[in-house]
Amino acid sequence: MTTRITTRGTTRLTTRGTSPAPSFTPSSIANLAVWLDAMDASTVLRDTGSGFVPAANGEAVARWVDKSANAHILAQTVSGSRPLLSTSAGPSSGRAIIFDGADDFLTKAANIFTIPCTVYMVLKQITWTNNDEVWDTRNSGLRPRMLQSTSSGQIRLTGGVPTTNNVQVLDTWDLVTAIITTTAQSLQINNATPGTASMAITPATPTTLNIGCNAAGIGHSNIGIAEYIVYSAGHDSTTQANVKNYLKAKWGTP
Hints:
The chain contains 1 helix and 19 strands. By secondary structure, the chain is mainly beta.
């Protein structure tokens, strides 16, 4: 026997005695490597001096805990270089981690994902200067995965050298997707015409992950990030749509 369940105008059928089918989350897809979610207060932590507890509005974020099964922790041990949590400056007046563009960044020194990979980000550029770097995974040599801004505020994906495939300014919250294979990189911004950067290189294994600047600790970005998800797989259009629809429904992004 089935029971009709209606939630916010959506009707589903479920067998009596069982629960409705679970909703989609990033962990519904294989090869989830990193999942940082500012909406989950239990993963955004401040340092009390004797331990770590959920940060409140305006407090410095010492740790952002990965929600994937890998349970990575992006951290900052230098108190003056910690980004701040905002509970109202994010998408739809929600939560986000705000990096000041001067010295804020979070880092994890480990090979936490591989190539091919697909990266999804809900972010906003607040101010910008040339070569501000949103995220990076190498501290020397070729940088096969690096999201960077230009002096005009446009955002681009680079690999070893800057590309000319710039897309529109992200001065409002948007959903960005980067797809990296062994020979090419593509960048999609939901509110803009996609830009593509291709290169004949074999990307090196990631040695670290920095969010807020490059892996050498320079090129800081004044940005807000609400969610950051990485899969160690190249996603086709159907899989991309599943993740993007989840993020759009959650954050109200384009």
